[in-house]
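Input structure tokens:
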């Protein structure tokens, strides 16, 4: 079929118009959607979506707050991505702030005034190294952030690339600047407690620490937001126990990290600790046992010396269980439904002790929740009557195997341990002010203070246990989701060689097949469009 000259011209014009209209429409659509922004966060933990605590802090702002970004323009290639991630994050803060969150970006490398400001905020010029084929290149630049609110500044983030969770750091800085006062956490002393200086410093970044004293049956200072009892080895007096009990009865929150046994790390001999706190805990529904939980199913691998020459060997050591949350099963390890442990995927505890839990009776308004428990194959080594030897080849169970709880939280209307009993000497509280039932009190118990020893808190998830516990018990549980975001280790499922080969060649074949299908589809559509155009401009149907 032949077309006339006029119809042929119209046919070519039709084809040219179609070719031009497609990019024109695309350009027009892009211009129209520039002011709009859509983001879909498909990560499992919503890694790129601002958390509930962040949204709340921003919503409660009474005055504008400023996030200052100090990044050099010239940066190594690996830090360019970090700079873009920082820009995306602070733009989300700015968008949610609706004028209450201001963002200022400066390049101290090119602006002397910005460099002076960075120096005042303790944001240093960093040294970056990059290894080439034949040389090591060293460059300098800035990659820090600071938060200002009115006339105050929070401690700066000197190196954004070193931050394990930038949203948590920024939200924490904003909350520090805008809250009326930091939560006050009391810490007991004088009973063998050993809170490491580094751990104390980490806690003090978020909480105001106060050393607790006991007088007249009360805790001083009296208006504590929480009480931390960390690693006691000596007994509390009756009067001190009464003061702690009355603190709980008045709605106080107590966190107890205590080892059921003390272990000599040279001889591996373990003996029972003084567990005077059980006098209180047993009345609330939990008690710490003087034993060691060993779990051969989830044993941590450690280095031990063997033989006369002291040769180092790797040994699976059941007395250091690595509690995990197996996916897709009823939980045996870490409770996925409680805010303290839900974000934690695994945690190792050195020589933990078992807890005995007393479930609430029918009609009793008390909740006992297990947070961390062993597998059903775990067993205990009891040091109540005599010391036990904890060398790997000497671990012999003292009872039947079974699941053992090592961390739990008790809350609700707890009954006083001194209800109906003679009061200890030295108590000067009027009898009508002594309470026998708690009003909103809660007690969290972890049967291993060693979980936060210097060698253990290098693990982020071990620190999460403490930080999440403090947040959930003392203040904003929603901050837990931000702190723990990205911290869980989720390794890929191992593949066999045939599976890996099938995936590899499948990807190659799928790519070729996709090109063939797309090409065939495009050719078919083009032929169909050409046929219709010829029919239209030739005057036939």
């Amino acid at each position: 079929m032949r077309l006339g000259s006029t119809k042929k011209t119209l046919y070519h014009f039709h084809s040219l118009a179609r070719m031009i209209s497609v990019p024109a429409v695309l350009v027009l659509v892009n211009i129209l959607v520039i002011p709009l922004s859509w983001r879909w966060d498909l990560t499992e933990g919503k890694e790129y979506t601002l958390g509930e605590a962040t949204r709340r802090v921003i919503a409660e702002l009474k005055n504008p707050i400023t996030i200052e970004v100090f990044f050099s323009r010239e940066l190594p290639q690996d830090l360019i991505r970090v700079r873009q991630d920082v820009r995306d994050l602070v733009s989300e803060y700015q968008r949610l702030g609706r004028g209450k969150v201001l963002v200022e970006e400066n390049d101290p490398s090119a602006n002397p005034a910005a460099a002076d400001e960075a120096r005042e905020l303790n944001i240093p010029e960093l040294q970056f190294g990059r290894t080439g084929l034949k040389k090591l290149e060293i460059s300098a630049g800035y990659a820090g952030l600071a938060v200002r609110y009115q006339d105050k500044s929070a401690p700066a983030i000197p190196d954004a690339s070193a931050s394990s969770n930038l949203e948590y750091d920024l939200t924490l800085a904003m909350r520090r600047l805008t809250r009326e006062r930091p939560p006050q956490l009391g810490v007991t002393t004088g009973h063998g407690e050993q809170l490491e200086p580094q751990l104390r410093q980490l806690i003090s970044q978020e909480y105001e620490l106060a050393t607790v004293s006991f007088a007249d049956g009360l805790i001083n200072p009296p208006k504590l937001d929480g009480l931390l009892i960390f690693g006691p080895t000596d007994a509390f007096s009756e009067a001190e126990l009464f003061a702690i009990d009355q603190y709980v009865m008045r709605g106080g929150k107590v966190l107890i990290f205590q080892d059921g046994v003390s272990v000599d790390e040279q001889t591996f001999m373990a003996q029972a600790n003084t567990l005077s706190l059980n006098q209180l805990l047993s009345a609330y529904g939990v008690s710490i046992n003087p034993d060691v939980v060993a779990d051969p199913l989830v044993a941590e691998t450690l280095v031990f010396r063997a033989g006369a020459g002291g040769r180092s060997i790797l040994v699976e050591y059941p007395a250091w269980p690595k509690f995990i949350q197996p996916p897709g099963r009823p939980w045996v390890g870490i409770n996925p439904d409680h805010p303290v442990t839900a974000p934690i995927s695994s945690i190792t505890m050195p020589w933990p002790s078992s807890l005995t839990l007393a479930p609430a009776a029918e009609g009793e308004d008390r909740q006992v929740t297990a947070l961390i428990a062993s597998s059903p194959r775990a067993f205990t080594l009891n040091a109540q009557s005599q010391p036990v030897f904890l060398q790997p080849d000497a671990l012999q169970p003292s009872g039947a195997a079974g699941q053992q709880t090592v961390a739990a939280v008790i809350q609700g209307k707890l009954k006083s341990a001194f209800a109906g009993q003679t009061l200890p000497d030295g108590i000067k509280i009027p009898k009508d002010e002594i309470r026998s039932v708690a009003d909103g009190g809660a007690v969290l118990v972890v049967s291993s203070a060693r979980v936060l020893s210097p060698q253990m808190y290098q693990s982020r998830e071990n620190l999460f246990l403490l930080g999440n516990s403090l947040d959930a018990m003392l203040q904003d549980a929603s901050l837990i989701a931000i702190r723990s975001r990205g911290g869980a280790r989720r390794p890929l499922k191992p593949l066999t060689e045939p599976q890996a080969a099938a995936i590899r060649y499948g990807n190659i074949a799928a790519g070729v097949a996709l090109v063939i299908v797309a090409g065939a589809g495009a050719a078919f559509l083009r032929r169909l469009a050409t046929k219709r155009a010829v029919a239209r401009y030739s005057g036939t149907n």
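Residues 487-492 have pLDDT under 50 and may be disordered. The longest strand covers residues 311-324.
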